[in-house]
């Protein structure tokens, strides 16, 4: 009753609990801390603290057996201020509206930090992709694409791959959208196969970007990356590419893991051999010539650099006191909880935040989108050079802000991004 009276008297009514999730709590906590540091005007806190738009869809998919599966899909667009929205879609059993909302907010900061003309978005379907056949996944992807038609478009919202999705799903997605429009629309998604308007270098972009950022950070803190021992959690699109590139430049990759387990060798793993094993067996389990540990144990292996490249909330209050490294490079989105980050800070372990460390993916997605619009392709060297330059420039903005605001790199990165978006929001004003 008291709430009704307050509302009638014109007080602000707080948000509902629609985004409620642990990941959204983490994203909001980070936004609040950066906002406080910047003394962000309440107007911009209001305008940026919640997603601008979300679509939830429930749809049927026919299984190969004839049975019908009922699935829920999401697409969240965090801000429409910076241009079209951009962000991947994932398939997983934990996908939820709150998770997508948090990931969409991080996409906004990532794009703003890199100076890309996008707001953030994220989507996904709540499912267990490993239990679905290729045919079922195709029907699922095509139906999900069709359900999103009201909110997506090459100049409205451009999806991309994320966990559990890749080039194959992007091709189906692009084809479905194109069938509905009556002509090929390559620029509706990024991360497509090259033959369908994808860009050379997109598949490797996130992992490669992780390494470019790590190199820049090592130069700054006086660590020779070729002398460094590195442990990587996650051996998928991001983790396996980062491992291969680090191995190629001479770093010692001492541990890697996937969802099934981890392997450790303090003398350095033969990463091409590990990749061949995974290609042949689908898992790290059984890989010879290494000590076998649990999937999360690799985070605690003694080394200079830990790269969580699997999923969110892996460095927690429980294991943060046991990390034995100098640097955590967040290749995954949201791998460190705020409470764990406090412990790492107190222990003098530097954290390179996700919005910088894994921004290589969206940066090359942007290159792909530009090439699709231009109908003109760039070569791989050109792409790698531009990527390296943009990531190094972004790291420079982060270190400048960290010096100016006397804060850590995460708050610095978020501050650069939030300042940029808030300025754009201020200049656009409020409609009507
Ligand atoms: P992926 O599905 O290709 O690979 C994920 C890997 O993590 C797999 O090897 C899986 O076995 C492993 N894994 C899952 N749970 C694990 C656990 N508990 N312990 C150890 N390993 C585990 O996904 P991806 O595309 O490599 O994405 C990984 C992370 O990077 C995600 O957080 C994603 O949001 C983020 N990211 C991806 C991109 C991209 O371009 N793919 C871009 C930016 C950020």
Distance between the termini: 32 Å
Number of domains: 2
Which hetero ligands occur in this complex? nicotinamide-adenine-dinucleotide
Characterize the biggest β-sheet: 7 strands, mixed
Portion of residues in helices? 40-55%
CATH domain fold name of the largest domain? Rossmann fold
Secondary-structure content class: alpha/beta
Low-confidence stretches: 1-8
Supply the CATH architecture of the largest domain: 3-Layer(aba) Sandwich
Word description of this protein:
With 432 residues, the protein is of the alpha/beta class. The protein has two domains: 16-183, 3-Layer(aba) Sandwich (Rossmann fold); 203-357, 3-Layer(aba) Sandwich (Rossmann fold), CATH 3.40.50.720. Helix content is 45%, strand content 16%. The chain is built from 14 helices and twelve strands. Strands 9-8-7-6-10-11-12 form a seven-stranded mixed sheet, with helices on both faces. Mean pLDDT is 95; it is low at 1-8. Bound molecules: nicotinamide-adenine-dinucleotide (NAD). Nicotinamide-adenine-dinucleotide binds at residues 161-164, 206, 233-239, 257-259, 295-296, 309-311, 331-333, 358, 361.
């Amino acid at each position: 009753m008291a709430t009704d009276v307050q509302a009638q008297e014109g007080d602000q009514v707080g948000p509902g609990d629609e985004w409620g999730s642990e990941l959204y709590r983490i994203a909001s906590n980070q936004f609040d801390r950066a906002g406080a540091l910047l003394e962000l005007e309440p107007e911009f806190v209001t305008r940026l603290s919640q997603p601008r738009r979300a679509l939830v869809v429930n749809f049927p998919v026919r299984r190969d057996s004839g049975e019908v599966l009922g699935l829920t899909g999401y697409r969240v667009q965090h801000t429409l201020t910076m241009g079209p929205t951009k962000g991947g879609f994932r398939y997983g059993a934990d996908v939820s509206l709150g998770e997508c909302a948090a990931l969409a907010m991080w996409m906004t900061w990532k794009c703003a930090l890199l100076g890309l003309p996008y707001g953030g978005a994220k989507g996904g379907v709540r499912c267990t992709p490993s239990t679905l056949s290729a045919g079922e996944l195709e029907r699922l992807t095509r139906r999900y694409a069709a359900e999103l038609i009201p909110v997506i478009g090459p100049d409205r919202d451009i999806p991309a791959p994320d966990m559990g999705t890749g080039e194959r799903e992007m091709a189906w997605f692009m084809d479905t959208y194109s069938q509905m429009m009556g002509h090929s629309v390559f620029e509706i998604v990024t991360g497509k196969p090259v033959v369908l308007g994808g860009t050379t270098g997109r598949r490797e972009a996130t992992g490669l970007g992780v390494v470019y950022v790590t190199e820049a950070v090592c130069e700054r803190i006086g660590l020779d990356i070729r002398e460094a021992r590195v442990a990587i959690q996650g051996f998928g699109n991001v983790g396996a590419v980062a491992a291969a590139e680090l191995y190629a430049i001479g770093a010692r990759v001492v541990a890697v893991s996937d969802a099934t387990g981890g392997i450790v060798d303090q003398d350095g793993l033969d990463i091409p051999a590990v990749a061949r094993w995974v290609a042949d067996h689908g898992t790290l389990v059984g890989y010879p010539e290494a000590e076998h540990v649990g999937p999360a144990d690799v985070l605690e292996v003694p080394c200079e650099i830990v790269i969580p490249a699997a999923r969110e909330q892996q460095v927690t209050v429980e294991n943060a006191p046991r990390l034995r490294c100098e640097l955590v490079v967040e290749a995954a989105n949201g791998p460190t909880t705020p409470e764990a980050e406090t412990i790492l800070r107190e222990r003098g372990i530097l954290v390179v935040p996700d919005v910088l460390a894994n921004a290589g993916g969206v940066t090359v997605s942007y290159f792909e989108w530009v090439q699709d619009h231009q109908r003109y392709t760039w070569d791989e060297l050109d792409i790698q050079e531009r990527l390296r330059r943009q990531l190094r420039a972004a790291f420079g903005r982060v270190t400048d802000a960290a010096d100016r605001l006397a804060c850590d790199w995460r708050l610095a990165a978020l501050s650069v991004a939030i300042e940029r978006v808030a300025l754009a929001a201020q200049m656009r004003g409020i409609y009507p």
